[in-house]
Design goal:
homodimer, 289 residues, 4-stranded mixed beta sheet, 4-stranded parallel beta sheet, 9 helices
Chain lengths: 289, 289
């Protein structure tokens, strides 16, 4: 079977990522991927889903063979020019004409367009959307912090073994600069405790919050394929326990914040779950503790 | 499609488990499942696999539609009477005619027979073998400790919310008795950090090693379907980091111990990875720290 043109673009993206997120034409590859995804979705039927999440509306795209994941209709603004404008401002060094909410919409629309397209192309492929989302968010964070991420940390070699420990994305802009530990996932689901466990490990090796933990997630929606109902799978009480007993995450960012997690911001002690767009403006204000 | 007779027995097992592991006829259901599994495997072709693990030999069973996972040929003694004898000794209160190694073989042979059978019946079903293995090991541990497990712990309700936190199996034989936290998995793979994270959480709520962590796993083999080669996926250096920086697990038990993890016992500080059979004899000697 011929590899779908969208997946060929994804191959090209992987090739570019290997050269580095801050060099080359990665932004343009994202533009091409976005355009190709929207073209693919435009040939599919748009379906209104039944939302079981208060205040949120969802749609999906239905292809010939299968349907897409749920898309938050209020965040979805399929428009490549918004992305290219954002990208062009990033390239001049500063985002001036988008606020946090607008950035969130642009990034959500691009990311979910690709994920939904892959849903239509391949049955049950979670890995391609997952990897794409990692590259996409890492690209934005790398731009903001001005440094390439690594995915391992060095462990003090007390016993000669020169050990590197694989991690999620680590951004270290240099001595005495803010350092970030940024797991990037399309959803956390039943594995969310791993976010805190990795933070605990990095805290242990480098000191508590030497790397501030700021995971970025896409959404926590679940679409019941038979009933066409959308729910959000959230475990706020468990998250609070992880935050109290395992490690402290400084922020948890989402492109589509689940309602149950958004409420954690309002409780004491707060567990700050924010739109990812906020990171681009508040990153310099974040401090450990 | 009619549900396979082995899966009907599995349904019966689930029904019995709901009544409790220490009551009813669960042991007999395991005997039936074992016999049915061996009958199913006897109708499949037996294949010698290419072992890339030093000192271990593996086989697989090949059905009409698909093949089974790898089976450690040196541990595999398909003989229901060995199990029924072990079961009968358990019912009289003490195991007298099996040592740890022999128990391990009996338990391994029963567990892997069911898992391999499910591999032949259903494509890509990891959940049925996983749940079965949890019930099977929990049944043995519940017998040994004389107490039913729970799968949640109560959190001190400082803010009125009466929170229970879902956990892996927890065995609490009563006040001032040894308590155990026993995650049970067919393999740990890339999620192994969750074993330590849950221990850290329970340590936080109840005090360090108030519940001793003794996870039980089946194996870490991976069969390459094309090349027919078997490897063991192990991350011993990462495990050591988890043990140093996240929490202390008292033991990690396997029915088929991966070679790379067995070596951790010989190093300092030891991370004690043992055959599960050992638990039945050493459980009263285990102490925190």
């Amino acid at each position: 079977m011929l590899r779908h043109s969208l997946l060929l673009l994804f191959d090209e993206l992987k090739k570019q990522v290997r050269k580095g997120l801050l060099t080359g034409q990665i932004g343009d590859v994202f533009s091409q991927i976005y355009a190709e995804s929207l073209q693919l979705l435009s040939s599919a039927d748009r379906e209104e889903l039944i939302s079981r999440v208060f205040g949120k509306r969802y749609i999906a795209f239905c292809g010939v063979a299968r349907g897409s994941r749920a898309i938050n209709a209020d965040l979805f603004e399929p428009d490549v020019t918004l992305w290219t404008q954002l990208l062009s401002e990033m390239q001049t060094g500063e985002i001036v004409s988008f606020n946090s909410d607008q950035i969130n919409r642009v990034l959500y629309s691009l990311a979910i367009s690709f994920c939904a397209s892959v849903d239509l192309i391949k049955e049950g492929d979670q890995q391609t959307p997952g990897t794409f989302f990692q590259y996409f968010v890492a690209f934005i964070v790398a731009w903001r912090l001005g440094v390439e991420p690594t995915t391992s940390i060095q462990i003090l070699s007390i016993d000669q073994e020169d050990t590197r420990l694989p991690t999620d994305f680590i951004f270290n802009p240099g001595p005495k600069q803010r350092k970030f530990h940024v797991p990037i996932k399309t959803s956390s689901r039943e594995r969310s405790i791993m976010l805190w466990a990795h933070q605990k490990l990095i805290d242990g090796v480098y000191g508590v919050e030497r790397f501030m933990g700021t995971p970025v997630m896409l959404a926590e929606t679940k679409l019941d394929k038979a009933s066409r109902e959308v729910i959000e799978i959230c475990l706020p009480e468990q998250w609070r326990m992880y935050q109290l007993y395992i490690a402290r995450l400084k922020r948890i960012y989402y492109l589509d914040i689940p309602a149950a997690y958004a409420r954690l911001n309002a409780e004491f002690p707060p567990l700050e779950v924010r739109p990812f767009g906020d990171f681009l403006f508040e990153w310099k204000d974040l401090t450990p503790g």
